[in-house]
Write a structure and sequence with these properties.
The chain is of the alpha/beta class and 246 residues long. The protein has a single domain (4-236), classed as Rossmann fold, CATH 3.40.50.1580. Helices cover 33% and strands 28% of the residues. The chain has 9 helices and 10 strands. A 5-stranded mixed barrel has the order 5-9-8-6-10, surrounded by 4 helices. Strand 8 (160-167), helix 6 (175-184) and strand 9 (188-192) form a beta-alpha-beta unit. Helix 2 runs parallel beside helix 7. The radius of gyration is 17 Å and the shape is globular. The structure holds adenine. Residues 77-79, 171-173, 191-193, 216-217, 219, 223, 227 line the site of adenine.
């Protein structure tokens, strides 16, 4: 049967999941390693896209053209934007938007030119499954990341949120920029650098897309340090939540 693709930008975001794919075969395309194997008996292609919207779009195209995947799931970390979206929480996207897309005044701000839309819907059924598995996993944060990390990152009662995820070719690392995004896009839950690009590519091919992101920082003046510590110490553990999603 046709595989599902699991994508993260960086190795630290997927390493624990890759370790659960014992039978994988490595196929090298476009300078990336595509790991073809199984998770829980389901055929899977796992790949690291590298960071940014172009890297995401190239990776999506290879997955769709060469591997014929039937859906793509993106995972990794994101910066929290909306109030109450805290470090250690999980965001499952219902829709995605490129916050650095702006061809105004020719097209409305955020609209993807000639596509007549700024928002791309994520697949609801896959999103439901991801959110359900994440809810279960987050009920036991100590089991997921260990007591030391729970204490260090204050992961007392991490939550699952669903809503708008925004993407752009910027690491948002000032309280000023974070505030501007919150004012312009008040329903945005979190910001990262790949999801909306991959959602657009999947839309073009008519293939379902979903994204699950763990909050590593609040996209504020402390984001650089918070992101670096979270990625180094706990991010990959969260990818294990995906192992049980199908
Ligand atoms: N991924 C994780 N944190 C981020 C941030 N603050 N900005 C952009 N992408 C991120």
């Amino acid at each position: 049967s046709t595989p599902i693709a699991i994508v993260a930008a960086m190795h630290e975001e997927l390493s624990a999941l890759l370790a659960r794919m014992p039978d994988e075969q490595r196929v090298r395309v476009a300078g990336r390693d595509f790991w073809v194997g199984h998770l829980q008996g389901q055929p899977v292609v796992a790949v690291l896209s590298r960071i940014g919207k172009v890297a995401a779009a190239v990776t999506a195209t290879v997955l769709l053209e060469r591997f014929g995947v039937r859906a793509i799931v993106f995972t990794g970390v994101a910066g929290g934007l909306a109030p109450g979206v805290n470090v250690g929480d999980v965001v499952v996207a219902t829709e995605l938007l490129q916050h650095d897309m702006d061809a105004s005044p020719i097209f409305p701000k955020y609209e993807v030119p000639l596509m007549g839309r700024s928002r791309f819907a994520a697949d609801a059924a896959i999103g439901d499954a991801l959110a359900a598995v994440a809810e279960g996993t987050l009920r036991d944060p100590v089991g997921l990341v260990g007591q030391k990390a729970v204490d260090e990152f204050h992961l007392r009662s991490p939550k699952v949120h669903r809503g708008l995820l925004i993407s752009g070719d910027r690491f948002v690392s000032t309280t000023a920029e974070c505030g501007a995004l919150q004012r312009s896009l008040p329903d945005a839950l979190a910001v990262e650098m790949e999801g909306a690009a991959m959602a657009q590519a999947c839309h073009d091919y008519g293939v379902p897309f979903a994204a699950l992101r763990t909050i590593s920082d609040r996209a504020d003046d402390a984001a650089h340090g918070d992101f670096t510590r979270f990625v180094a110490e706990v991010a990959s553990r969260y990818s294990l939540a995906l192992v049980d999603a199908w």
